[in-house]
Amino acid sequence: MTHAIDEAILLGDEVVVMTARPGRIKEVLPVDLPRPPSLDMVNTPAFAALHKRAFDLIREEVIRAMEQQSASLVGAS
Prior knowledge:
The structure is a single chain. The protein has helices at residues 5-11, 45-76; strands spanning 14-18, 25-30. It is 51% helix and 14% strand. The protein has one domain (5-76). The longest helix has 32 residues, at 45-76. The chain is built from 2 helices and 2 strands.
């Protein structure tokens, strides 16, 4: 398990993105890159596409969690 997107893509066979709360599987991204991994892979379009998809999914969760937190703070006042 890691919180680093690059590391997850380089070392894993799949990247599992979780929801913020409750922590559930949001999406499983298969890593279809050559093995063994090399650092040169980070410059490939396939790596970039996986990274962007994972980042976008995480960003959605961050935004949703912030909106929920903001709503709960407004409701508490």
